[in-house]
Structures are given as C-alpha cells and as structure tokens.
Amino acid sequence: MSEAGAGTRGRGPGRRPGPTETREKILAAARDLFAEKGYDGASLRAIARAAQVDPALVHHFFGNKEGVFVEAMRFPVDPSVLLPHIMSFPRDRIGEAMVRTFLQVWGDEDRRAPMLAMLRSAMTNERAVVLLREFVTSALFGRASQATEAAPLAIQAAAGQMIGLMILRYVLCVEPLASASEDELVELVAPTLQRYLAS
Amino acid sequence: MSEAGAGTRGRGPGRRPGPTETREKILAAARDLFAEKGYDGASLRAIARAAQVDPALVHHFFGNKEGVFVEAMRFPVDPSVLLPHIMSFPRDRIGEAMVRTFLQVWGDEDRRAPMLAMLRSAMTNERAVVLLREFVTSALFGRASQATEAAPLAIQAAAGQMIGLMILRYVLCVEPLASASEDELVELVAPTLQRYLAS
Prior knowledge:
Two copies of one chain form a homodimer.
Chain A: H1 19-41, H2 44-51, H3 55-62, H4 65-72, H5 79-87, H6 94-107, H7 109-124, H8 126-148, H9 152-171, H10 182-198
Helix pairs in contact in A: 1-2, 1-4, 1-7, 2-3, 3-4, 5-6, 5-8, 6-10, 7-8, 8-9, 9-10
C-alpha cells in the first residue's frame, strides 16, 4: 500500500510512510476525547497522548485544537453521500427515508460518538457553537434545502425533530422510545418529516 | 413576612430568620453554575462560594451535590402548572398551545438557563442522565400522557420535536429558525404536535 503524497498538508513532500494512518489515529483519538470531555476538556496534548504521537505532529497536521475539532467532528456519514441517498427515495417516501437513515447512523455506536461529541461541545463552548453552526448551516441545511426544495425553516424543523428524538432515545434513553423499533418510529415520525420536506 | 418553619428540612425547629432566602440563594447560584459548568464542573464548594454561604449550609439544606442538582434542575415552570395550562386550550388547538408555551418558557433567559443546565449535565454525566430521565419520565411524560390520553411514544416524539427545535433556536442559533416569530413557528410545528397529542 503506497501512502506517498496522500493525506498530508503543506510542508514537505510527504514521502515518509504512514501519514494517513497517523492522521486517522489522531482523529480517532480526538473523536473519543471530544466525546468524553467536550471541547474545552480535551486538550491537544491529551489528544496527542491518546493517539500515541508527539504533540508537534498534531500541530503539523491540523494547526490547532480547532483544526482537529473541525476535522474530527465531520459527520461519520458525509452529507454529500447521505443526502443523495435520502433523495433517491420516491418523493412521497422522503420522510420515511430520513427517519430510517438517521436511525441507522445513530444506531451505530461508532458513528453516534462523534455526533454526540459535537452536540456536547456546542452546549459547553461558544467557539464550538460557531463552528458547528457554520458546519450544519452550509453542509447540511443548505444542501438539504436545495435538494428537497423545502424552505430552510422547514428543513430546520425536520432536523429539530430528529435531533430531539435522538437525544431522548440515545442520550436520555427514555422508554418506550429507547426500545422502539425502526418501523414503529417510521410510522410515528415519517409523516412529520414528509410534511416538512415535501408538502 | 414570616419565614418560620418554611423551606427548612429536618434538623432544628428552623426558627432562625431567612432559611427560605438562603435556600433560594443557593439554588439560584447552583442553577447558574450547572448552566455554566455542567454537573461535573460545578462543585458544591463553588456553589457555596457563588451563593456567599458556608459549604456546611449547602450540606445542611441539600445533603450533597446530587441533592442540590435535583432541586435546582426543577423546571422553572412546574409541570403540574404547565400541563393544565396547555390542556386548558380546546383539544383542536393543543399543538398550538404546546408550541406557544415552550416558546414563552424558552424565550425567557432566566427560565432557559436551568433547562440548558439539565441538558448539558445529562450529556456529560451518567448520574445526571439517570436523574433527568427519572424526572422527565415521571413529572413530564407520565402526566402528559394521562392528560392528553396520547401514547407515551407519541408524547416523546412531541417532546423530541420541541427539544430539538429549542436546541437549534437557542443553543446553535441557526437562521432563519433563531429569528422566526412565534406565529411562524406555530404555523410550522403546531400541526406536528397536534397529530402526536390528539389524533
């Protein structure tokens, strides 16, 4: 497997082996630490320690903690993949498609952790709020509005429905929501999303 | 104004002046500190310092930090007041009543802070999750289900809609949601809640 030139930024020809693995190792450690400690609680030094690399390497790849955060908080499913997937459903089943897609992403613990880390950071840190707001506004809401032709406000109401539902199901774990099946939740919530996204 | 016997717990006849004010001062400081630092970040000592009382007094009134948290995280509007208010609307306007009530409570910064503190604590601390889950399950969802005769799952879907919307509006402050008027949000979201609560 050649890693040459892949995954490095700026300085140097990047011919040393393994920069991609190192970068991914740092991001994985950062996701875990942001998930556990929030934005303020996870220091760049602690991220380096968890990734078993020199802090200078983290600086080299990402500049500063914000840089690590922006990269690490990327949705585990890229919106540019997720949205076309949802839009590939017939228009009258787009609400159902959104519920099923959210449940599948959030149901996977490895993909849930970075999303919870984002939310947690946004709720404890003003800079993280700004970062996350910029991210969701451009990468999610903007694209979703273009794709569905729904008004931005309606897109945000749909997003709010799913965010709140996911918090109650996976963070607070309230019953019966935490144990409800995918089909039960589709029956319950899909008509709501359908109305917001395609009415 | 007589304070005798009011607001004290256990030990002593509570005849010393001002226990209610002291108790409220501690709770107000605790709310601010939980809002700012989350459950783990706010120490009992720091709460006492912010309330300008001796830490022993905090112990006396509330036992431990959990005790302070349970009291401090109480909804600023008691569910036993809030729910009858919502239920006083005609049944075909119950969705609208819920949206307006939530917006009025969350729109008031003094009432929003303790609710954000709860959410934040729940997202960073396992014990806070348990406490909050017990609270919302018994004090909110149970009562709402009884009052509306809606299924618990539908009540939770309605709550999820409002929680997510409030996070996007007041925490992330995404536009146009952050600047939308009460009437715009009623038009957008009330039909959703109406369907969950009374269909």
